[in-house]
Design goal:
138 residues, alpha/beta, three-stranded antiparallel beta sheet, globular
Amino acid sequence: MPRDDIGTCESCSQTFSYRLIHNGFNDSAFAYCDRCGCSASLSGWYKAIPPAAHFRAHGPVTPDTEVLLQGCRCGGRFCATASPRCPHCNHELSAESATSYIEANAQGTAKGWKWQRSWQGLYSIVVDGRAVSDVWLN
């Protein structure tokens, strides 16, 4: 089971739990809610992926995919360009600022691993357990 680590919001200085997801290891794509920052994980193994999605795993969803996703329970939309947000102040988290806590918490840092410094790469993040899976429109 993946472990949760602790990050700090650069805006309000509150701490939160988070978990990094390597979307290459689980053949998934991801998007964040544009309003609350909830993470949506989309499995490449899901049997009912709409053909119009032109689904590609291992990174953020494409605009073709995001229009075929359900809305977030907060009323926002899961978007390719949205960012995760602080669960306390709702400020967009900076991937650059997150480098300090992500690399400090990552076991691989001692062996040379470096954070991608972007929310658009191979890794995604689940903040404070706020995540949904395979939220395709019916």
